[in-house]
Amino acid sequence: MRKKDTHTKMKIFILILVGMGSILQAQKFTSLAQTPPMGWNSWNYFACDSLNEEVVKATADAMLNSGMKEAGYQYIVIDDCWQIDRDSKGKIIVDSIKFPHGIKALADYIHSIGLKFGIYSDAGTHTCGGHPGSKDYELIDARTYAEWGVDYLKYDWCNTEGQEVKSSYTKMRDALFKAKRPIVFSICDWGESRTWEWADTVGHLWRTTLDIAPRWDGNRWGNQLGWTEILEKQVGLEKYAGPRHWNDPDMLEVGNPGLNINESKTHFTMWCMLAAPLICGNNLMNMSDSIQAILTNKNLIAIDQDSLGKQGFKIYDEGNFEIWQKPLVNGDIAIAFLNLENKTKDFTFEFNKLPIKGVQGTYKALNLWNNTKLALSDDKINISIPARGVLIYRLSEE
Ligand code: GLA
């Protein structure tokens, strides 16, 4: 009897040790998102009703054929509305009308053309669109994603009444880790918990605001914000971003109805200044050449993807005119002059008097949209910034 007791105690002790070991080891995958993730997500353009397998496959083809893959875009992410129920074992059931060949076949196709595949779920009982969420099914879902070949998970925060935010996200982080397939973990609680203060060890990126709308400013339906409103909410968050942990001001609206070409170009430029994840949200299958040129501009993408991983910050603000700075590798600096007004802005400055931080020595400046050089000197320099436009320069030491 006594021997048996000791044996049981030993067993419990070992179980506790093993349990503690796995808790200690659980972490996010640290080899991912060294630079802000780049890809496409179905939500901003296709939302629920128009999402289906054909759209996603054709979008992946378009990413390849438009030069976007070559420019660095990688992830094809399906957002809400791919899931309809759970089976008797708790495994998620895919909407077979939208995805007749299932998710694994879709992921296989996307991998076969050299891209990566992402999916969406929610920390609560249901997603924002009312589909089954992952609450209490974290491990089974993580294992299903691993089995399907998922590379990226966007994890939303609807229908989470009574749940604590950090532990809910950590639970899914640990489940993903346990499932052993490296998956980028994209946290989407809209910054409501000041996510940037706790999420760097949990996810690779986290939303900082409510949803973006395809608008210059104002809001749509009261809770979706135009991109310039979102931009202003990034001020002060720069210190929280860096390699493997990024602030996410939401997916791009570049090319979507609601923004003209010029406004799309300004939006893209500022997202690159923010070191934002570049997740396109437009219809890649029929985008215009001008939109394609914006999304694949190598000079701009290099600013976003700069290996130093510094988020840009505002250094000057006179209401409708702002200057932003982003530190880059090798002491280079990106400077963006942003004109928020609907008329041309003429600005005269002396380079050495601009409030740029950390400037030492003399610099040359390259205009990143037209590849012309700007001579920087102590003399007065005049620049003209188009209505709702931006001039962006890369400064390099001479
Ligand atoms: C929330 C998210 C969006 C999108 C929808 C889907 O609103 O913030 O980005 O994923 O849910 O229902």
Task: Give a structural overview.
The protein has helices at 2-25, 43-46, 53-65, 68-71, 102-112, 138-148, 165-179, 227-232, 261-273, 289-295, 298-304, and strands at 38-41, 75-77, 83-86, 92-94, 116-122, 152-156, 184-188, 205-207, 219-220, 224-225, 246-248, 278-280, 313-317, 321-327, 333-339, 345-350, 363-367, 373-374, 380-385, 390-397. The chain contains eleven helices and 20 strands. With 398 residues, it is α/β, with parallel strands linked by helices. The longest helix is centred in the N-terminal third of the chain and has 24 residues, at 2-25. 44% of the residues are buried. The model has no long low-confidence stretch (mean pLDDT 95). Strands 11-8-7-6-5-2-1-12 form an eight-stranded parallel sheet. Bound molecules: alpha-D-galactopyranose (GLA).
